[in-house]
Amino acid sequence: MIKYLPRLIVILLLASFTLYGSLKSFYNNKIKIETFTYEVKPNTSILDLYDGIYESNNLFEKSLFLLGIYLFDFRTIQAGEYLIDDNLFKVLTKMKLGETITYKFVISDGTNKFDLSLYIDSLKLNNDCEDFSCIDLVNDSIEGLLLPDTYFFKSNTNLSLLLNKSSSELKTYVDMIWRDKPIDNPLKSKYEGIILASIIEKESSSIDEKMKIGGVFLNRLKIKMRLQADPTIIYGLMPDFNGDITKQDLRDKNNLYNTYVIESLPPTPISMPTRSSLDAAITNSPNEYLFFVADGKGKHIFSKTYNEHLEYVNLYQKK
C-alpha cells in the first residue's frame, strides 16, 4: 500500500486541480448574454438562487455551484434587487456585499403635480403617499413644496421618505435666503416668494435672465400692477390645456391662476422652482423694467414703457 501512496497522492492532486479548474471556469463564465435584474428575497435558498440566476439544470454544474458557494464563502447573501450583468463570481460578490441596484428619483426643474404623478407611477417605489398626502399641502397643491434635485433610492423605498427629504431641503433653503431679502422687496411671506419663484421658473431657464425677470415682477408687485404671466394661465387650464392661450382665456375670471385678471400673485405656486428661481424672487429687488417679450431665440427683450413693449411685440412676435 505504501508503495502506491505517491501515485495516489499524484492522482488526488490531479483530480483536485481538475476540479478546481472546472470550478474556477464555471464561476468565471457569463451567466447570460443579456443583462437582467434579479431580486433576492429574504430567506432565499441556495438552490432557489441557482434556479433564478443560472439557466442550466445540468447536475454537474449545479454541484459546482453549490461547491463554490462554500469554498468562496458565498453562504451569506443579502436580500435586494441586483443587476445581473457579469460573471457568476462577481454577481455573488455583489450579493454578499449587498451592492443592490440604486435608482434615481429626479424632481425636474419647473415640474408640476400632473407630470410628477405620472413620473412617480413609473418608478419602483412603494407609494405610501397617494395624492401627496404625506406632505402638508397648501390648497391641495404640491407645487412649491419640493426642491428640484436628484434623489437616490433602492427598490420599494417608501415615496414619503424622498418627498419629505425634498420638502425639508426646500424649507431649509428658503429659510436661509429669506434672511437676505432686500428691504425694497415687496414680498410679504416666504410662501409668496415660492409662488413668485415658480412663475419665474416657467418664464426662463437662464440664471441671468431669471434675476431680470424677477426684478420685473417685483416691480409690478411694488406698484400693484397685474403680473400678466402666461404660465399662470396655462397652469390654471391644466391638465386639459391644448397648447394655445385664447382671448377668452385671458379674460376668464373663473381661472384662479389668471394673472391677467387677478390682483397680485396666484393662490399657489405653479411649478417646482429651483434655487436660482428662489434667489431671483427672494434675494432680488424691483428693477426699472415693467415688460418683457421672448425674442424667439431663447432670450427676452425688456422694456420700461408699454409703447416700447408693443414695438418689441410687433417686431418679435408678429412675424
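The above is record 1. Record 2 follows with the same two-line structure.
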Amino acid sequence: MTRGLAILATLALWAGISYGNRAVEWMLPALLPTPGEVVRVFLDSVRDGSLVTSVTTSLVRVAEGFGLAAAAALALGVLVGVSTPVRLLVEPIIEFVRPIPPLAFLPMFLVWFGLGEASKVAFIGYTTFFPMFVAVAASVLRVDPMLLRAAASLGATRVDLIRRVILPAALPGIIVALRLGFGLALFVIVGAEFMGADAGLGHLIMEGRTFFNPAQIVMGALVLGLLGSAANALLVAAERSLFRWREARATS
C-alpha cells in the first residue's frame, strides 16, 4: 500500500511539474515530456512492435551476460571463501581490476569481440561479475565456524560442507548478490547498446536522442525501471519461498 502511494505521488509530482511547465514555460516544453506524451509513445511502440522487439533483445543480452557472470561469481566466490590459499591468490587481482570503470573497457570489448552480440554479453558479464563475486565471497566468509566444526565432527566431507552447510547459510547474501548483479546488468545494457546495436532498449533511447524525442527517452528509461523492479520482486519472492521451505523442513 505504502509503495503504491509513493509511486502515485511521484507520478502526480511529475505530472504537476511537466504540465505546469507547459503553462508557464520555465523551460522548453519539449525538454520535459508529460505523462500523456510518454503514454502515447509507449502505445505507438507497442502497436508497431518496436517496444516488444527492444525489450526481448535487451533481456536476452542481459540474461546471457548476467547468467555467465553469476555462475562464475558463485563458483569463484565459494572457492575463495573456503580456501585461504585461493583467496590470497585471487583477491589482489580482483581488487586491482575491480575499481577500473567498466566503460573504460567498452571500446576494447568492441575491438576484441566485434559489434555483434558477443561484445555486449561480455561487457555485461564483466561489469556484473565483480560486485556479485565480492558479495558471494563475503557471505561465505561470514558463515558461523561453529556450524562447520559441528558438521565436520559428524563426518561431513568438504563437498558436504559446501552443499549442506555453507551454501544454505550463505543463501541470503547470495540472493542479495544476484539482485545487485541483475540491476547492474540492466544499468549497463544501455551503455552497451549505445554502440553498434540496431535493437534493444539502449538503441531505443539513443534513437530518441538522435531524433530529439524526449518522450521516447523517458519511456525507455521507465521500461528499464519496470523490468528491474520486476526482476527484484521475483528474486525476493524466491528468497522468501526458499526460506519458508527450509523452515518447514526444519520443523518437520
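The longest helix spans residues 214-251.
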